[in-house]
Design brief:
- This protein is of the alpha/beta class.
- About 40% of the residues lie in helices and about 20% in strands.
- Helix 5 packs antiparallel against helix 9, helix 12 crosses helix 14 and helix 21 crosses helix 22.
- The two termini are about 40 Å apart.
């Protein structure tokens, strides 16, 4: 899909001054400026996150109350249960907190609900079983902030400490303590901690209160794993957590982490945030998606190397099964989209009977990325649908679902991701309400995806030293994406398809007499484009290591031409020809033509026209006056066929615009 190239503007003089003060290249200084880091002190803190101090955990609301209650439970040998969520964030949060409680002498166990039979959040029947078994204190991690009614029904039977990072509702749950950086009364400087990050701060506070020293081994590699997996912004304290955790990853004291690294083949290379996000985290996640999250918790808690290797192997197998399930359900979802007016949809809502719950979020993410539309994927069983939602920048899912709650049984989540329950008969109504909400929240231009490009620079201008220096930006992730570069009009040598299924395009960029290797994963359809030459490229700069040889390599993100700028251009013969060809191609592609001229202009830009709403409106008026277009009662435009040769000057609007 074409995207806008958003070339981040920077002050060259300011970049040079910052570079001189820091002793780095102008390239790195410019990238820092692009990220809003505009002074040497902030830059040094960003580039060396390990040197910053952790924030005081007692800045989180109710931390003092939580520590007091948990300490009393440990000292009185009360039965404590850590109640976690079944995703990687919840699994790692459960592991870290349980291990700390046990190290501090607590009588503690854990509970993670079954995704398929108990669902998300705190389950009332599970609490009743815990009460019957003698549990007197439940500590939630990565969940609980919206479980008001469940906790209310059990508050006379047991105490609760809620730790969560999701958005609170209008009412906080009835608990001894509710620790959430999103509370309105929170003074915590980093409001975007993951669930495992909140659990980690509780561990820090407990160690300090009970041992008067910082935690000896708070499991930072586990905290880093969950933080990256939950895609929270890798800035501020999250950046320190992940940087410190990555340093411990290869030599982890956790047998399970070492076994997972070995099983995934990461043992021979340095592990970065991408290694966590694309290799380790999916395998921790997959147990909760397909079977029971207990498998992942037991792996992380394991102290037996043979058992850990066996569990890591099982997670690898489950991950392969997960890929197959995801592809199967996505194919069914795509089949549904063929019968929808996807070209004019503001949101995607698809549903199927008993689609596997564990991969709904993955399918939603994949469809959102492919079509660049907010996406909801729903599995229906016995008349009840449960869905996963993924959004695009500018569309607040939580706000949208709040406006649609009359059609929902329940919902919860964030601006960019959420979950919901809906009756099957209300799915069409939900789609209509979300379409209306999308029209309120979003402009047509916001449906054009973009690359934030740090600089237009040819691979031929890159050096090994420059690329090695970029590693100072690690760990990269949300709100600190790896730097992207753009270059236009490139040519290449030796393009060929690689890999077992011939899906990866490998070629050599040839520019200014210099050759640089490039790899474009899963882009076999681009072979002809690069072979012709004169292509545009968006890429990340990397280093390829092979047989003790190190060389520059472009990690290709796109080979599409960028979306043209939006600007007023003359509605002359050339522009009219472009718009008519665009309209005809839309119709031939099976799409209806929207009468929303802003939407039509957005689609024209995606097809390569220098379009904006006014010149598209004028062009449509010309075609209506000539009888080449007509409006339908349903609010669409329709091309009219005519054998008569048309003269543009027969249109009063065209004559006025070209007089």
């Amino acid at each position: 899909m074409r995207k806008i190239w958003n070339i981040r503007q920077k002050d060259k003089e300011k970049a040079a001054a910052l570079a001189a003060e820091l002793g780095v290249s102008a390239l790195l200084a410019g990238i820092l400026l692009n990220r809003g880091i505009d002074n040497a002190a902030a830059a040094r803190e960003f580039l060396h996150p390990e040197e910053r101090e952790y924030y005081d955990p007692y800045l989180l609301p109710d931390m003092d109350k939580a520590v007091k209650r948990i300490r009393a439970a440990i000292e009185a040998r009360e039965q404590i249960v850590v109640y976690g969520d079944y995703d990687a964030d919840g699994i790692t949060a459960t592991t870290v907190l349980l291990r700390t409680l046990q190290q501090l002498g607590g009588w503690a166990d854990y509970y993670i609900p079954d995704r398929f039979t108990e669902g998300y959040g705190v389950n009332l029947e599970a609490l009743k079983r815990m009460h019957r078994q003698g549990t007197s204190l439940v500590i939630t991690v990565d969940c609980g902030i919206k479980s008001v009614e469940e906790l209310r029904q059990m508050q006379d039977c047991m105490d609760f400490v809620v730790t969560d990072h999701h958005l609170p509702g209008d009412e906080l749950p009835p608990a001894v303590a509710v620790i959430d950086a999103h509370r309105q009364d929170s003074k915590y400087p980093c409001g975007e901690l993951a669930g495992v990050g909140i659990a980690f701060k509780l561990c820090q506070a407990l160690w300090l209160a009970m041992k008067k020293v910082p935690a000896e081994n708070p499991g930072l590699e586990i905290v880093a794993l969950g933080t990256v997996a939950d895609a929270v912004p890798l800035v501020d304290e999250n950046r320190k957590i992940v940087a410190e955790g990555l340093k411990r990853m290869k030599d982890s004291s956790f047998v399970g982490i070492r076994a997972l690294i070995e099983a995934t083949g990461l043992g021979n290379r340095e592990i970065d945030s991408m290694g966590i996000g694309f290799v380790l985290a999916p395998r921790i996640n997959v147990a909760g998606r397909l079977k029971s999250a207990r498998l992942s918790v037991e792996l992380l808690l394991s102290e037996n190397e043979d058992m850990a290797r066996e569990m890591a192997g099982k997670l690898n197998e489950l991950n392969n099964t997960r890929k197959e399930l995801k592809e199967e359900i996505q194919a069914m979802a795509e089949e549904q989209l063929k019968s929808m007016d996807i070209g004019n949809a503001r949101v995607i809502v698809v549903a199927g009977e008993e689609w596997h719950h564990g991969v709904l979020g993955l399918v939603a993410s994949s469809l959102q990325e492919k079509y660049y539309l907010p996406t909801i994927v729903i599995s229906v069983k016995d008349g009840i649908g449960k869905g996963s939602c993924r959004s695009i920048p500018g569309f607040n899912l939580f706000k949208a679902l709040t406006s649609c709650q009359s059609a929902l049984v329940q919902f919860g989540g964030h601006e960019m991701a959420a979950g919901l329950t809906v009756r099957a008969e209300n799915i069409d109504l939900l789609r209509e309400l979300l379409e209306a909400e999308a029209r309120r929240q979003m402009t047509a231009a916001q449906y054009i995806p973009c690359y934030d490009i740090d600089m237009e620079i040819s691979p031929a201008e890159m050096t090994m030293e420059m690329v090695e220096e970029l590693s100072l930006l690690e760990p990269c992730g949300m709100k600190n994406e790896p730097p992207l570069f753009g270059c236009r009009g490139l040519s290449c040598l030796n393009p060929e398809l690689k890999g077992a299924d011939a899906r990866h395009l490998k070629f050599t960029v040839s520019d200014r007499g210099r050759l640089v290797d490039a790899i474009a994963f899963n882009m076999p359809e681009e072979l002809a484009r690069v072979a012709r030459g004169g292509f545009d490229m968006v890429y990340a700069a990397g280093i390829n290591e092979w047989r003790d040889m190190r060389s520059l390599q472009c990690m290709v993100r796109s080979l599409d031409e960028p979306v043209p700028v939006q600007e007023p251009v003359a509605v002359d013969r050339d522009f009219m020809r472009q718009i008519y060809v665009f309209l005809r191609s839309r119709v031939q592609g099976g799409h209806r033509l929207s009468a929303d001229l802003g939407w039509l202009a957005m689609q024209a830009r995606l097809e390569g026209c220098r379009a904006e709403e006014q010149n598209v409106a004028d062009a449509v008026t010309v075609l209506l006056e000539l009888g080449l277009l007509k409006k339908t009662p349903e609010g669409y435009l329709e091309l009219s066929s005519t054998a008569k040769k048309m003269d543009l000057y027969d249109s009063p609007t065209f004559r006025r615009l070209n007089s």
